[in-house]
Amino acid sequence: MPRPLHPLPPETWPDAREARGSLMFSPLTLPSGLTLNERSWVPAMVPWRASDDGHVTPAILDWYERFAEGQPGVIVVEATGIRDMPSGPLLRIGHDRFLPGLRDLVAAVRRGSGGATRLFIQVIDFLAIKRRPEPARFFERFLALTPAHRQGVAALDPRVDPADDEAVRAALAACDLATLEELLAPREWEDLTMGYRERVTDVHLDHIAMLPSVLPRLFADAAERARLAGFDGVELHYAHAYTMASFLSRRNDRPDGYGQTPDARVRLPLEVLAAVRDRVGPTFTTGIRMLGDEAIDGGGTVADAAHYARCFAAAGVDFLSISRGGKFEDARQPAVGAAAYPYTGASGHACMPTVFDAEAPFGLNLPLAAAIRATIRTDGHETPVVASGGINGFHLAESALKAGHADLIAAARQSLADPDWWTKVREGRGAQVQRCLYTNYCEALDQRHLEVTCQLWDRWAGGEETTPPPMSKDGRRRLTAPRVPWTARTRPS
Q1: How far from chain centre, in Å, is Cα 486?
Q2: What is the pLDDT of residues 136-157, one digit of tens each?
Q3: Which terminus of the chain has fewer CB atoms gathered within 10 Å of its CB, N or C?
């Protein structure tokens, strides 16, 4: 592992009296009428603990109950699929058969937090993505031959009969990469070198063209199931590499009234929000996770995000949670047999910055939340804004709240490192907080679809645990943070 470029910023923790008087630990009432006990927030993280058919498992219950023991103001459950279709070990909410497990999840958080934590579930739609194929298999089975392929091969080798499909495919498979890049269309080249991936702009595909008529009902159905399961609200996933964020992207050039201009790009997201509102009513909290900056070439900037935020605030959304980047467009090339992962390029580093990057990660994305909040306040809307990104200390969080840069503070990796950190700070025990190192050990596990854990948990030193912790499938990593007083052993540098 490379040496970190940025040390953790020093922190002077508040005593219990200062914490009690802080904005961080003050209540906030959302536009829906739901009151949060404090402004701390654990955002959605996919831990790869669901069953292969999308059901809640005992490991999922352990994961969320452990976060709840820190009694944050809000926990947002991981991205949960709205369609009733296989999606691997990711939670799903696309059918009533998922309700019993989701009710168990709600009960686990209520139990763990003693009822202090509000629980939202993030609901998501995503399009098809395939693994990078073996070249021979790609040319044999997947490539649809066109006149351009036939003419190109015949020009390279007159002995090849352009009417003979088998001969044309064999000739293409024998070409070097430089030649293939010239012979294949840009999307075909991408399918070969990255793996096939659908886009919201693929309107030649009927199911893509029909997304605006299908998605509002699917999201509304998911929100209704969330309400029936006992959640306090839903977070509509309009961020990163997925369907709704792709509609909002400046790269969206759909010609059907749902792309090309900012108002057309925000049209479907507003229709989804309206459908959810119509289904669950104004008192069931409905928020949005969105990008403040796509962080890709030709992508949307904070100016685009501010425009969309104004539209969402005017439509009565209950909160806006701001993220950054995490796109497929600049993802690193996957190995053959693996799928592209949208957090491996520059936009992925912008989403989850580390201490190895040139710029320090601490509070790096706060300016995005601040700009968006300022815009909607200028319009007279009091929509709460959630800031996130590299926040692992009280004073950074409190100063952002006092400066009016945000209304709520989300901390994903820090909450993973020490789920009790909110309670420790609240009670004046901040010196006991195990602070995230921002090396993205956890994110590397996520890339490989392995159970997400924190390296600090396995370095713990402290009191004896009465029961052994659950372990990862390989038996090498604990799956929950220690519950006894603990500190992380420092590895020699």
Answers
A1: 29
A2: 999 999 999 999 999 999 999 9
A3: C
- Are 119 and 242 within 8 A, CB to CB? no
> 343-375 burial, b if ≥16 CB within 10 A, otherwise e?
bbbbbbbbbbbbbbbeebbbbbbbebbbbbbeb
Among 432, 200, 447, 222, residue whose Cα is nearest residue 340: 447
Other Cβ atoms less than 10 A from the Cβ of 84: the count is: 16
Is residue 262 within 8 A of residue 135, CB to CB? The reply is no
* Residues 322/387, Cβ–Cβ less than 8 Å: yes
β-bridge partners, 290: 238, 322
- In this model, does residue 460 exceed pLDDT 90? no
pTM above 0.85, yes or no: yes
Which tokens hold the place of 475?
Answer: 């038996």
Given a cut of 50, is residue 492 above it in pLDDT? Answer: no
Q: Which residues make up the CATH 3.20.20.70 domain(s) of the chain? A: 16-129+204-447
Q: Is there a contact between 81 and 46 (Cβ–Cβ < 8 Å)?
A: no
Residue 490: pLDDT band (50, 70, 90) is: low
The letter for the amino acid at 401 is: L
Q: What is the pLDDT of residues 261-275, one digit of tens each?
A: 999 999 999 999 999
256, β-bridge pairs: none
* Distance of alpha carbon 332 from alpha carbon 194, whole angstroms: 9
Residue 396 CB contacts under 8 Å (≥ 6 apart), including other chains: 9, 362, 363
Alpha-carbon radius of gyration of the chain: 24
Q: How many whole angstroms separate alpha carbon 148 and alpha carbon 135?
A: 19
What are the pLDDT digits (tens) for 193-202? 999 999 999 9
> 219: which residues sit within 8 A by CB, 6+ positions away?
82, 123, 125, 236, 272, 275, 276
Domain 16-129+204-447 has CATH 3.30.70.20: no
The answer, yes or no, to whether residue 132 has pLDDT greater than 60, is: yes
